[in-house]
Write the structure tokens for this entry.
Amino acid sequence: MPLYAYNCQDCNAEFELLVRSSDIPACPSCGSEKLQQQVAKICSEIKYPAIARSWRKAAAASGDLSNFSQQELKTKKG
């Protein structure tokens, strides 16, 4: 699931969302679907495994497991 940056045309909020191709994104502030997609920043490879683990732990706590590899997902389930 790719990460996209958006600007809401109704309330001018700027935010990033993980969006599937079948999803229609909406502004988390006002709920509007009138969004302008922005150029998103590309994250370079993380060189410090401890930082990657902490980010993945935070993502898993919020219910987002899309940033885990298949091997990591198998380990979490088992």
Notes: The helical segments are 49-61, 70-77.
